[in-house]
Amino acid sequence: MKIGIGADHRGVVLKAKIIKFLKGLGHSIKDYGTDSAVSVDYPIIGLRLGRDVAKKKLRFGILMCYTGQGMAMTANKVPGARAAICTTPKIAALTRAHNDANILVLPAGFIKYDKKTKAIIKTFLNTKFERGRHLRRVQIIKKYEKNHTIQDML
């Protein structure tokens, strides 16, 4: 599976560990940077990865910054990108199953690289979207992204 990964300067250490983990699972990785602790503008990384996920150049994306909030807010500005901050495997499962999230966001300052983090990643990558009533809700989001209006949805 082709996965994009990106982090700002606060997530660079975690990103390197996750790349190694994903490659060990046999995934192909596109690295969106950064590769050092020098301060960078995270929106550039989040927007580029979000764009490529939305265009289906990647199956999934993984983003990291200190809280995860900046990357999530940024990636979610891209129509078709559905980024979710996940801190437990259960949240990862539900955000995939119910929201068809396609970008996993990890708060690098608040999680360790351990079995739990690996389980979050594996769960996110392996959980299928349930469709059903959830599909209708995701379609409302997509419709808004296209038309930028909720008038016909009320």
Give the topology.
Blueprint: E1 2-7, H1 12-24, E2 28-31, H2 42-54, E3 60-65, H3 69-75, E4 83-85, H4 89-99, E5 103-107, H5 115-126, H6 132-147
Helix pairs in contact: 2-3, 4-5
Short descriptors:
154 residues, Ribose 5-phosphate Isomerase B, Chain: A, globular, 5-stranded parallel beta sheet, single chain, alpha/beta
**SS element count, helices:** 6
Distance between the termini: 38 Å
Radius of gyration: 15 Å
Q: How many β-strands, per DSSP?
A: 5
> What's the order of the H and E elements?
EHEHEHEHEHH
Strand order within the widest beta sheet: 2-1-3-5-4
- The appropriate CATH architecture is 3-Layer(aba) Sandwich
Instruction: Indicate the proportion of strand residues.
Output: 15-25%
Q: Mean pLDDT across all residues, rounded?
A: 96
What class do helices, strands and sheet pairing give? alpha/beta
Low-confidence stretches: none
Structural domains: how many:
1
CATH topology: Ribose 5-phosphate Isomerase B, Chain: A
Give a verbal description of the structure.
The protein is an alpha/beta fold. It has helices at residues 12-24, 42-54, 69-75, 89-99, 115-126, 132-147; strands spanning 2-7, 28-31, 60-65, 83-85, 103-107. The protein contains six helices and five strands. The protein has a five-stranded parallel β-sheet, sandwiched between helices. Strand 4 (83-85), helix 4 (89-99) and strand 5 (103-107) form a beta-alpha-beta unit. 36% of the residues are buried.
